[in-house]
Amino acid sequence: MQEIKFYSGENIPLELHKVRIVQKLNLVPIERRLQALFEGGFNTFRLSTRDVFLDMLTDSGTNAMSDNQLSAMMRADDAYAGSQSFERLQKAVEDVLDKKYLLPVHQGRAAENILSVAYVHKGSLVPMNYHFTTAMAHITDKGGNIAELLYNEAYVINSDHPFKGNMNIEKLEETINYHGPKNIPFIRMEASTNLIGGQPFSVQNLRDVRAIADKYKIRLILDCSLLGENAFLVLQREEEFKNSNMETVIKTMTGLADICYFSARKLSSSRGGGICTDSLEIFKELEAFIPLYEGFLTYGGMSIREVEAMAVGLYETLDETVISQSPSFIKYLVEQLDKKNIPVIKPAGVLGVHLDAMQICAHIPQTQYPAGCLAAALFLISGIRGMERGSISNQRDEYGNETYADMELLRLAMPRRVFTLSQVKYVEDRVTWLYDNRHLIGGLKFVYEPPVLRFFMGGLEPVNDWPEKLVAKFKEDFGESL
Ligand code: F0G
């Protein structure tokens, strides 16, 4: 990646794109935001963008699309079967991910459903570097279980370990021996491990996992949703690839997996998803599930326009100036917050900035969901919408007991090429104010808890009047400012 130095010596990321289509944002008064929180059950998923200023909920389906993606959408060849748009997508998957066979699906979790339907049974165990919410939900839904096998370093918030997403190889072999390879339908490796702060694994680690998979004849499945970013960090951090390029790193990684799947909402800044493989046998095992759950084999539940946008978006993941924008803004914000000793996950990863609610809200017990409280409080005082990635996002165990998360994080996603640096400075400013007033943040309790993936639609309420007190302090400090 070519470095761009400022004469002033200032070290800030520089946008290598221009903005040609814009969308107006609303910054509504704090009183309206308080009302919106009550209406939305103190759950940021249930807010309307009418009330949101900076939407940092996710990068899923919210990355800015390129001019080339938008223009490709216009040539969509709408056909139920045999669309030429699908042929272009197949070609892109072959060129970028180096896999011959593609099964299209409507988004990432649809791939997880199909892989679980095909391979997971009651008593199955799926070892993985770390779970993702939907991947785990589909595996447990089919009667399986998961084993998360990271090194201890992965759970250290203030770390300089370059690859906290690495699979613990010793534990992987132990787990396989303990449960028996026959009960392990596949090993799942997630690129840029989402729930522990967007932390990558190294290519060497993936090679080591492949060696174990070969030894015990177990399939290796790679979740490629954040593969571009993982590859970008490999270029930055893994000695062997210092002078390499995105294409080589991506192909090296996908070449080690039997099956790759992805959410195109992330990987290619579009919508949709896919499962791909070089094995005709695997393709045949999975093929019949596509028309059953998704749609015909040449659209998989996606609009054909999205199929075109996805093909172009896949090629664009090979462009370092596209992929580096979000991680460089994340790094900037992490460094600014870290300078003020505000606890954030380090080293800076991908997807977003992750605030450590366990430390920031140390006065709130995990039974009252500190990360959910921090998410609600930040929205209240700033209009910034983040996502709780803590115990609310965890699912209850098979006996209905709460399982408390290893980490209580507030994720502030940085979708690709969406925010400007002054908006990022606003985030820094309001997070700093909230940190200085963190003693005013209080707990939450569930009033409505859905049985599956409760974090999406669950409803909570504050345990006392802390939101009103926070509003009063905001008014004291900011007066009539929004
Ligand atoms: N795998 C990973 C690593 C993901 O981050 C996601 C989605 C999925 C699978 C599921 O894909 O949403 O297309 O069904 N992550 C989003 C997020 C939702 O906000 O992190 P999907």
Low-confidence stretches: none
CATH H-tier superfamily of the largest domain:
Type I PLP-dependent aspartate aminotransferase-like (Major domain)
Name of the top-level CATH class of the largest domain: Alpha Beta
Rg result: 22 Å
Q: Please, how many helices?
A: 20
Strand coverage percent: 5-15%
Total domain units: 2
Characterize the largest beta sheet: strand count, sense, and whether it forms a barrel.
Answer: 5 strands, mixed
User: In whole angstroms, how far apart are the ends?
Assistant: 39 Å
Structural class: alpha/beta
Number of strands: 14
- Distinct ligands: ligand F0G
Short key terms for the protein model shown above:
single chain; 482 residues; alpha/beta; Aspartate Aminotransferase, domain 1; Aspartate Aminotransferase, domain 2; 2 domains; five-stranded mixed sheet; three-stranded antiparallel sheet; 20 helices; globular; binds ligand F0G
Describe the structure.
The structure is a single chain. This protein has 482 residues and is α/β, with parallel strands linked by helices. The protein has helices spanning 30-39, 67-73, 84-97, 108-119, 133-141, 169-179, 203-216, 227-237, 246-255, 264-267, 280-287, 289-293, 304-316, 320-323, 325-339, 357-360, 370-382, 421-436, 454-457, 466-478, and strands spanning 54-55, 101-105, 125-128, 145-148, 186-190, 219-223, 259-263, 273-277, 352-356, 384-385, 387-389, 409-413, 444-448, 459-462. The protein has 2 domains: 30-59 and 323-478, Aspartate Aminotransferase, domain 1; 67-318, Type I PLP-dependent aspartate aminotransferase-like (Major domain) (Aspartate Aminotransferase, domain 2, 3-Layer(aba) Sandwich). Helices cover 41% and strands 12% of the residues. β5 (186-190), α7 (203-216) and β6 (219-223) form a beta-alpha-beta unit. α1 (30-39) runs antiparallel to α17 (370-382), α2 (67-73) runs antiparallel to α13 and α3 packs parallel to α13. The radius of gyration is 22 Å and the shape is globular. Bound molecules: ligand F0G. Ligand F0G is lined by residues 58, 60, 107-109, 132, 134, 190, 194, 223, 225-226, 263, 265, 273.
